[in-house]
Amino acid sequence: MNLNRIVHALRRSLPRQCIVCKMSSVNSNICATCEQALPHLTDVCQLCALPFYSAYSPICGPCLLNPPPWQRLDSLCEYVAPVDSLIHAFKYHADFTSVTPLTRGLAARVTAHRQRWPDAMIPVPLHQWRHWRRGFNQALEITRQLHQILHIPLRTDLCRRIKNTVTQTGLEHSRRKANMRNAFVAHAECAGQHLAVVDDVLTTGATLRALCGELNAAGAATLEVWTCARVVRLGAPAGFR
Ligand SMILES: [Zn+2]
Ligand SMILES: [Zn+2]
Q: How remote is the CA of residue 31 from the centroid of ligand 1, in Å?
């Protein structure tokens, strides 16, 4: 038995702690109670993942009038506590296990309505400068975790971020859109491909719109977007913003 196996066996034998409530948790980094209590987005529009229910259409009115550049959006949870803390620990403290409950849930979510699988998953690329500063791309790490569960090919060579955009946080929607203009370039190999674009959180969608616009321009056959969380602003009208 090598040292790694001994360490893993010891880890498995130790009681684990739930990353949300800090109580002991069996075989997982989140306890069953906290995992069930995550703020899952259910009864949402298939294109914008905002709360919406109609017996007649899976797509809300604003999305029917102004469809986004993808054919389906799956966001697992609303970006509120404790999801924000899980993602913060992941993004800013490189605690990759803190998002495993979310990637596991997201994998189950996209499997549930599956008719055909995408040819590949594409993590939203970071500009190399920001990648270097953070040390990792959060979207790539989430896609790696999804790949472990779903075994869909992971492609990082189909698009690049060519503009080091200023951080989107705190920018108005129109400024975000302008900020993202010409931020990405997609490879001609996207032509005819069914692709799933993966990111951690969808805020206004400006980044995903810009990237999916480029993938469509390169000839992608269909696009889905998968994110662990989505910002849902209370009081705002339904529809993609
Ligand atoms: Zn718990
Ligand atoms: Zn919608």
A: 4
Please indicate, yes or no, whether the overall pTM of this predicted structure exceeds 0.90: no
pLDDT digit of tens for each residue in the chain (241 aa)? 566 677 666 655 666 788 889 888 876 788 889 999 999 999 999 999 999 999 999 999 999 999 999 999 999 999 999 999 999 999 998 989 899 999 999 999 999 999 899 999 999 998 888 888 888 999 999 999 999 999 999 999 999 998 776 666 666 767 766 777 788 999 999 999 999 999 999 998 999 999 999 999 999 999 999 999 999 975 454 444 4
Cα–Cα dist 204/221, whole Å: 24
Buried b (16+ CB within 10 A) or exposed e, 80-100: eebbeebbebbbeeeebebbb
> What domains are there in the chain, each with its CATH number?
1-37 (no CATH), 40-230 (3.40.50)
In angstroms, what is the span from residue 74 Cα to ligand 2's centroid?
11
